[in-house]
Every structure is written in C-alpha cells, then in structure tokens.
Amino acid sequence: MLNNQINELREKLDNAILRNEDYSIIYKISVQLDELIAKYYRETKVKVAKS
After folding, report:
1. Are 32 and 40 a contacting pair, CB within 8 Å?
2. Quick one: which H or E segment has residue 46?
3. From CA 1, how far away is CA 40, in angstroms rounded?
4. For residue 9, what pLDDT is reported?
5. How is residue 16 annotated by DSSP?
6. What is the tens place of the pLDDT at every residue in 1-51?
7. Structure confidence at residue 6 (pLDDT)
8. Could you report how far apart the first and last alpha carbons of the chain are, in Å?
9. DSSP label of 22
10. In angstroms, what CA-CA distances link 28 with 8, 20, 23, 49?
11. Prediction pTM value
12. Cβ distance 2 to 40 under 8 Å?
C-alpha cells in the first residue's frame, strides 16, 4: 500500500518538475513524499524487529 502511494507521489513530483510547476507545489509534493518514505522505513524497521 505504501509502495503504491510512494510511486504515485514520485510520479506526480517528476511530472511537476517536468512541467516546471511553481516551486511551492514541487516543495509540497516533495515533503509529502519524504513523509511517506519515512513512514515506510519506520514500518519496515518494526517488522524486522519483530522477526
């Protein structure tokens, strides 16, 4: 689930950069992507620790 969200946001960010969108939009998407990636790693770390 998180993988799909990360991939979708990554694609949205790439498209925003290619379309030369306003910096504030690119920044907002980038922050959202960073938060999802951090969440993914936190959840992965918990799964590994439980194993």
Report:
1. no
2. helix 23-50
3. 10
4. 98
5. H
6. 899 999 999 999 999 999 999 999 999 999 999 999 999 999 988 777 776
7. 97
8. 21
9. -
10. 14, 14, 9, 32
11. 0.84
12. yes
- Residue corresponding to tokens 């990636």: 37
In our burial notation (b when 16+ CB lie closer than 10 A, e otherwise), range 37-48 reads eeeeeeeeeeee
Identity of the amino acid at 13: L
pLDDT at 44: 87
CA 8 to chain centre: 8
Cα distance between residue 17 and residue 40, in whole Å: 24
Scan for tokens 């992507």, then name that residue: 33
Residue with tokens 């907002």: 28
